[in-house]
Amino acid sequence: MATILECSELTKKYGSHRAVDNLNLQIERGRVYALLGPNGSGKSTFMKMAAGLIHPSSGKILFEGESVGKNSKAKTVYMPTESYFYSYMTWKDAGHYFADFYEDFQPQVYEQLLSAFSLEPKMKISKMSSGMMAKGKAALALSRDASLIMLDEPLNGIDIIARDQILETIQKYCSPTKTFLVSSHLVDDLERMTDDAIFMKNGGLVMCGKVDELTKHHGKTMTELYKEVYSDCVM
Ligand SMILES: Nc1ncnc2c1ncn2[C@@H]1O[C@H](COP(=O)(O)OP(=O)(O)OP(=O)(O)O)[C@@H](O)[C@H]1O
Fold first, then answer.
1. Ligand 1 neighbour 37 (Cβ under 6 A)
2. What SS3 class is residue 138?
3. CA 163, 85, 94, 118: dihedral to nearest 10 degrees?
4. Domain covering 3-229, topology
5. Is any ligand 1 atom within 6 A of the Cβ of residue 14?
6. Which residue has its alpha carbon closest to ligand 1 atom 4?
7. The dihedral formed by the CA atoms of 112, 124, 166 and 142, expressed in degrees to the nearest 10
8. Is 39 in the pocket of ligand 1 (CB under 6 A)?
9. How far is 208 from 36, CA to CA, in rounded Å?
10. Residues 71, 22: Cα–Cα separation, whole Å
11. Which of 10, 11, 20, 44 to mutate to test the pocket of ligand 1 (most atoms within 8 A of CB)?
12. Ligand 1 pocket, 44 CB below 6 A?
């Protein structure tokens, strides 16, 4: 198994606060990872460093053995929790925007995903409900033929049917050359479709491993493990 992302003693400080604190982690190619942790545990900060959007304060983060930078950015998707569209944009405009920016953007896949998620290309994004917005953002992210696809809270605020559609789409696009890193608080949903789980707390790593091995070893479901690991956290 080849390592796609590796970090050692990775730290990101905001002032004196350590958002990511001495993180040592290896992410293998071709697997689907659940990135778990309560609010403020450092999940987004970690993904933003992997995407090259912010720089570590100390430590290393390597993509395919090289420092995160121009090369890795071209092969990495980071879908943020925030909206990043201009107010005039329709879903069609957003597709053109992505096509201009990313060589690996696949317009046909985007069209198929919009249709599967019941979104019309001519719909104005600023008028979308939060669930429609989540589906459109996922359609854009999943239309890139990238090696590392990081989805930050893709399941938040959407109904069960849309949730299943997004999870099924991730499963459909899984391949030995693609790695998914999906952050969520919805452990139940992720347990069904992820190979590995990373538990973060206070910017550090609490536990990580293959989902089937962790559940077998501890004799607990992922939800039970989650509750145990974060029993002292306010959620
Ligand atoms: N730009 C910033 N400036 C200052 N502090 C920040 C900044 N971004 C994140 N933090 C702090 O870093 C810590 C980790 O935040 P982060 O967003 O990475 O957590 P998270 O696990 O993604 O949380 P959530 O599940 O709520 O999205 C938090 O304490 C947060 O307040």
1. yes
2. helix
3. 30
4. Rossmann fold (3.40.50)
5. yes
6. 14
7. 60
8. yes
9. 10
10. 25
11. 44
12. yes
Q: What is the ipTM of this complex?
A: 0.97
The tens digit of pLDDT for each residue in 17-51 reads 999 999 999 999 999 999 999 889 999 999 999 99
Q: Residue with the nearest Cα to atom 11 of ligand 1?
A: 19
Model's pTM, two decimal places? 0.94
Residue 228 dihedral angles phi and psi, to the nearest 5°: -70, -45
Q: How far is the CA of 147 from the centre of ligand 1 (A)?
A: 25
Q: Whole-angstrom Cα distance, residue 57 to residue 54?
A: 9
The domains of the chain are located at: 3-229
Phi, psi (rounded to 5 degrees) for 45 = -60, -45
Q: How far is the CA of 44 from the centre of ligand 1 (A)?
A: 7
- From CA 190, how far away is CA 199, in angstroms rounded? 13
Distances in Å between the Cα of 179 and the Cα atoms of 75, 88, 232 are 11, 33, 31
Structure tokens at 137: 């953002």
